[in-house]
User: Fold this.
Amino acid sequence: FDRFISVNLTGVMLGTKHGIRAMLPTGGGAILNWSSTGGLNGSRLPTAAYSASKAGVIAITKAAAIEYGAEGIRANTICPGFVETAMSGGKGAFERFPQLVGSIALKRPGQPEEVG
Assistant:
C-alpha cells in the first residue's frame, strides 16, 4: 500500500505543487497527470491500493484546476483503461482477463502509442 501511495500519489502531488510554483510567475501553464480507469471505478483486492492511489491523482488534479484556473493554470488527468504494456503483463495479458472485454469499447487492449 505505502509503495502505491508513494509512487502514484505523493510523486504526483509534489510534481503538481512544484509545477504550479514554477507556472505562477509566468502567467500560467498546463498540468497533465496520469491516472487510470481504476481511479474512476475502483477495483477489487489486491489492486484496491492501486485504485485508491489513482483516485487520489484525479482529486489532486481537480483541486489544482479549481484553485489555480483563474491564474491561467489548466490541470487535467488522462485515465486510460487496459493498455498492453510490460506493467499490465505484455502481449497476451488481455486474453487472461476475459472480463475486461465487455468493459472496453474497442474490444481490444489499448496500445501505448494510442494514449496521450
Q: What stands out?
A: Helices lie at 2-23, 37-41, 48-68. The mean pLDDT is 88. Residues 83-116 form one domain. The chain has two domains: 2-79, 83-116.
